[in-house]
Amino acid sequence: MDIAVCGADDVALLDQYIGAPGATSFHARRFARQERCESTYLVAWLDGRPVGHVELRWTGCDASAVRAARPGCLEIGGLGVWPEELRSRGIGTALIRAAEELAVERGLTDVGIGVEKDNVRAAALYARLGYEPLTDYYDRWSYEDADGFLHDNVDHCTFLVKDLPSGPLDVKGA
Predict the structure, then answer these.
(1) Domain definitions of the chain by residue range
(2) Helices and strands in the chain: count of H runs, count of E runs
(3) How far apart are CA 115 and CA 159, in angstroms?
(4) How far is residue 47's CA from residue 51's CA, in Å, rounded to a whole number?
(5) Rounded to whole angstroms, what are the CA distances from 83 to 21, 35, 89, 133, 164?
(6) CA 131/CA 147 separation, integer angstroms
(7) pLDDT score, position 173
(8) Which residues contact 44 (CB under 8 A, 6 or more apart)?
(9) Contact predicate 121/84, CB 8 Å
(10) What is the fold, at CATH topology level, of the domain defined by 2-163?
(11) Contacts of 165 (CB under 8 A, 6+ apart)
(12) CA 138: distance to chain centroid?
């Protein structure tokens, strides 16, 4: 498996193999944020096809409760592994470790990640990787469907944080 920064040509492959709701490509929106230097969008590749993704948002979490609790904390978001049978094989862990390494390379000292209250599996992964609860918040997001209707969503989440080491991370051994 390889992990690389998303390129313009990768967006169509992500849409093909890892679809998401909405008429406007979920992956294209993330790639556009990366082009504006607001984030870095990482893609996990296996046998020439995308099998996972994560976005490291340099601008941090949009939720005011998180910004108040930990000002300046960047956010790892949108972690996904697909198809489902590839989950629990270390792809998500590798993506998170790669995002953490990028943060360490920039000299940042902490990173956070949100998890829905009912996503016990993801919460267990994040705890195993050293993330600790900081604050509860509501993650608000929307998408436009193929018929042009806007769908607003609200997820009750917990924002977790991790203090990063000052030196390079051992991503291979993670």
Answers:
(1) 2-163
(2) 5, 7
(3) 6
(4) 9
(5) 16, 27, 12, 28, 30
(6) 39
(7) 44
(8) 1, 2, 3, 50, 51, 52, 53, 81, 91, 94, 95
(9) no
(10) Aminopeptidase (3.40.630)
(11) 104
(12) 17
Whether the Cβ atoms of residue 80 and residue 19 lie closer than 8 Å to each other: no
pLDDT at 84: 92
Residue 141, SS3 per DSSP = strand
- Range list of β-strands (E), the chain: 2-5, 39-46, 49-57, 74-81, 110-116, 132-144, 150-163
pLDDT given at position 98: 98
Query: Reduced to 3 states, what is the DSSP secondary structure of residue 84?
Result: helix
Query: One-letter amino acid identity for 78?
Result: G
Enumerate the β-bridge partners of residue 143. Answer: 151
Q: Please list the pLDDT of the chain residue by residue as tens digits (174 residues).
A: 999 999 999 999 999 999 776 656 789 999 999 999 999 999 999 999 999 999 999 999 999 999 999 999 999 999 999 999 999 999 999 999 999 999 999 999 999 999 999 999 999 999 999 999 999 999 998 888 778 888 899 999 999 999 999 866 555 444
Instruction: Specify the pLDDT at position 144.
Output: 80
Residue type, position 109, single letter: T
